[in-house]
């Protein structure tokens, strides 16, 4: 696809759509991963002599100027990560943005204010797209994690400028394509999290693509209960039992092996350091909740994953934010990391909770690829075409899902 490989951009104004939507707590940025992952593209463009104009949304101000959602502090953090000064303009379109762009010299970097301060961004207003495009000669999209949004800065603007994929976009698309479109087989997926209902499209899309599907987290409780297993007071969705049974049947028909927990860590109350009981899955006490998978499950899954060549991971195995219910996810994460390090497994993970779980387990850097995307990663796994990617023309070489 059209990358920045051959891009001649000395003296050119490059509008770089980044995802500067970093996590913030009490006004402080809690994780710089998205900024770190952006630096190769910015450095490469700046080294080639481009005038780099970084544009992004931040949080959800819904078309108004919410001061706490300004990108100014994120611009400063980006300067720190880059080790390179970064200018800032207090608007992303209009006179202020235009003046800041005109003042830019070759190799300099400018961050524009939050695109979502303008209602035209989320409405994908053609006027907003034109105004953004008028600032630049070339468009580079490095925001895979915002590519599921058909907004002015992710989709509309690509109609007005020569559009290219940045290095991070390229890395995300390559990793996901190798994991799901052209995986080395056997390929498996871990799908965890709380609700089957939020992952139905995802399961539907990957059933026909993977050889093994591991279902974990509270989602697994619904599958167990649907088969008549007593799950006590565990979180589950009684309304999804028919769906769960039909997924199990479809999987059988399509030759996809589904693995569910064979034992569970249970407690009568859900709180940190609660007293726990580990039981076979058929012996969950009626007054208890399943809050993590047990050691037998970890061993079974570990040995099954050991025979895979590719693994896609979305969603934790238990309530990992509340120890001791992090043990199952941690142990599985460490197994996946060691198989990856041994070179027998390509492991690709993504989605907000999954990334926190891997970080919690201390294996973030040990996976083959960890996506920076939350919603966009999910939509990709659901087989949806992402508008921000569709808008990048000439995607030859990447076989996109449906
Ligand atoms: C994300 O954090 O997943 C992206 O930045 C998209 O943010 P949004 O869900 O507010 O569109």
From TrEMBL:
It is found in: Cytoplasm. (2R)-3-phosphoglycerate binds at residues 34, 116, 149. It is an enzyme of class 2 (transferase). Its main location: cytoplasm. Pfam families: PGK. Its EC number is 2.7.2.3. Keywords: ATP-binding, Cytoplasm, Glycolysis, Kinase, Nucleotide-binding, Transferase. CDD domains: Phosphoglycerate_kinase (cd00318). Substrate binds at residues 19-21, 34, 57-60, 116, 149. Pathway: Carbohydrate degradation; glycolysis; pyruvate from D-glyceraldehyde 3-phosphate: step 2/5. GO terms for biological process: gluconeogenesis; glycolytic process. ATP binds at residues 199, 321, 351-354. GO terms for molecular function: ADP binding; ATP binding; phosphoglycerate kinase activity. It catalyses: (2R)-3-phosphoglycerate + ATP = (2R)-3-phospho-glyceroyl phosphate + ADP. GO terms for cellular component: cytosol. Belongs to the phosphoglycerate kinase family. Monomer. PANTHER family: PHOSPHOGLYCERATE KINASE (PTHR11406), PHOSPHOGLYCERATE KINASE 1, CHLOROPLASTIC-RELATED (PTHR11406:SF23). This is Phosphoglycerate kinase. It comes from Lichenicoccus roseus. The lineage of its organism: Bacteria, Pseudomonadati, Pseudomonadota, Alphaproteobacteria, Acetobacterales. The gene is pgk.
């Amino acid at each position: 696809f059209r990358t920045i490989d051959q891009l001649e951009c000395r003296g050119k104004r490059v509008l770089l759509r980044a995802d500067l939507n970093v996590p913030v707590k009490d006004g402080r940025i809690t994780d710089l991963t998205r900024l770190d992952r952006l630096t190769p593209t910015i450095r490469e463009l700046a080294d080639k002599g481009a005038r780099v104009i970084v544009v992004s949304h931040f949080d959800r101000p819904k078309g108004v100027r919410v001061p706490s959602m300004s990108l100014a502090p994120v611009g400063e953090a980006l300067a720190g990560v880059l080790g390179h000064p970064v200018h800032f303009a207090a608007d992303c379109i209009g006179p202020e943005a235009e003046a800041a762009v005109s003042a830019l010299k070759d190799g300099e970097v400018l961050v524009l204010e939050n695109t979502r301060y303008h209602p035209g961004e989320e409405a994908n207003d053609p006027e907003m797209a034109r105004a953004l495009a008028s600032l630049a000669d070339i468009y580079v999209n490095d925001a895979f994690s915002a590519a599921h949004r058909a907004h002015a800065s992710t989709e509309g603007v690509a109609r007005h400028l020569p559009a290219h994929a940045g290095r991070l976009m390229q890395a995300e698309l390559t990793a996901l394509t190798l994991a799901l479109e052209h995986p080395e087989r056997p390929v498996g997926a871990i799908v965890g999290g709380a609700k089957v209902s939020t992952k139905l499209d995802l399961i539907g899309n990957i059933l026909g693509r993977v050889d093994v599907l591991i279902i974990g987290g509270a989602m697994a409780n619904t599958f167990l209960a649907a088969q008549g297993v007593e799950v006590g007071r565990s979180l589950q969705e009684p309304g999804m039992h028919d769906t769960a049974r039909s997924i199990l049947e479809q999987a059988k028909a399509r030759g996809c092996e589904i693995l569910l927990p064979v034992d569970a860590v249970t407690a009568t109350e859900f709180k940190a350091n609660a007293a726990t009981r580990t039981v076979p899955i058929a012996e969950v006490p009626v007054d208890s909740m399943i809050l993590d998978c047990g050691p037998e499950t970890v061993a079974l899954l570990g040995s099954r994953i050991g025979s895979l060549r590719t693994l896609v991971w979305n969603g934790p195995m238990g309530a990992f934010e509340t120890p001791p219910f992090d043990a199952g996810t941690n142990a599985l994460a460490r197994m996946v990391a060691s198989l990856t390090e041994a070179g027998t497994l390509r492991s690709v993970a993504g989605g907000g909770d999954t990334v926190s779980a891997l970080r919690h387990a201390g294996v973030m850097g040990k996976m083959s690829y960890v996506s920076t995307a939350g919603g966009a990663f999910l939509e990709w796994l659901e087989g949806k075409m992402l508008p921000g990617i569709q808008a990048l023309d000439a995607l030859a070489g990447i076989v996109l899902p449906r």
